[in-house]
Amino acid sequence: MDDKKISSSGAIGDMEAKYKTPTFINRIIDTLTDPIFVKDKDHKFIFLNDAFCKFIGHKKDELIGKSDYDFFPKEQADIFWKKDDDVFRSNEANVNEESLTDSKGVVKLISTTKSIFTDDSSGNKILVGIIRDITERKTVEEALKKNKDLETFNKLAVDRELKMIELKKKIAELKNQLEKKSDEKSLILKNEELEKAKLAALNMMEDLAESNVHLKELDQAKTDFLNIASHELKTPLTAISAYLDVLDDYKEQFSKEQLQGLEAIKRNSNQLRTLIGNILELSRIESGRFELSKQDVDVEKKIVSIIDTLKVLIGEKNIELKADIGKLPVISTDELRFEEILNNLIGNAIKFTDHGIISVVATQEKDLICIKVTDTGIGIPEDKIKNLFQNFYQVDSSLGRRYGGTGLGLALTKKMIELQGGTIIAESLPGKGSTFKFTLPINLIKKDS
Length: 449
Fold this sequence. Notes:
Blueprint: H1 2-19, H2 22-31, E1 36-39, E2 45-48, H3 50-56, H4 60-63, H5 74-90, E3 94-101, E4 107-118, E5 125-133, H6 135-147, H7 150-180, H8 184-248, H9 256-286, E6 295-297, H10 299-310, E7 318-325, E8 331-333, H11 335-351, E9 355-365, E10 368-375, H12 382-385, H13 397-403, H14 409-419, E11 423-429, E12 433-441
Parallel strand pairs: 7-9
Antiparallel strand pairs: 1-2, 1-5, 3-4, 4-5, 6-8, 9-10, 10-12, 11-12
Helix pairs in contact: 6-8, 7-8, 8-9, 10-11, 11-14
């Protein structure tokens, strides 16, 4: 047992010695997407990673040996210098939010973490800084401030609508009373009341119009928030992927447990990338920036190819995946979106079916291509079908935990089909299975998103 521990410790020491080289470490630091800088006790740059040079717009050889005053406005350099001095004096790390002007004159909001260590060889203090660009985050915070008023405006809109209904009812009652009375004086009075009611209605309509403007602004803020948040998630995900690529080169030296951990990280990283992609695609569709690319697509070949690719998802399940494709023409559609639609529908069928048959039937109906994906899976309750294509909707949260998913796949599928001039419907019986049928025009019809 002790021999195994010694052998393990020796292997770890050998691996550390092998990879603890300046070249290897510099490669890792340059892989990081966050800007990193190192200064000596005279506040001069002595080491920088590629991300820092790119961030401020200067080459590395221009920066080494120089200070902040050589590149930034004096008021910014004064702040950087003072914060450096605080760290040198206290020997404690600090985090500051500051503004930085790059070589192109663009002002960026940054969060800088500065820490310090003592160089063993010279005994001098060395400062290390890591920069995080928080410009987009600050924009998100502003959007969230606007978003807080969304519920208030929604309630206001509902209250206004209820008052309008009540006002219309009152006007109708007054009108009926006027028709029953012929007395001139009474008629004049009622007309005055009607005018007052009309004026009140106009005022309320103006208030409603103003509220609607605010609601539209808040809806746009929500879309902006989704876009910025998704892009903000992409930055750390890119760094994770870069590290995974580096680790992949040395996986032959890993133990079984380490390999399992690496695969788990890869799997979750891919799931997060899919979620971010779905959110961004949904945002583009809802903001009207989604574009279709028209191409000629051989439906039969495409369906067969997708089925062959997805068979790997069946694994050890007792499922027969088959296709019944009639004689079909080549259609003009967006090939990438067509693949996404079939991947979502067939992938869902495999996910929610443990045994039985999954069939894909494709036929031509006049000037439409009709495709049905039918499974013998767990099925969907009738009262849940109407909500299937809503954003982030899941039939059962417990199923979400068991099978995974975010509730965006079917929502995006429906939107992509409708953007191409098609339709989709779902039929299902709990415990029996489900059928999803969609149509696409043979010639692509681009709908206004």
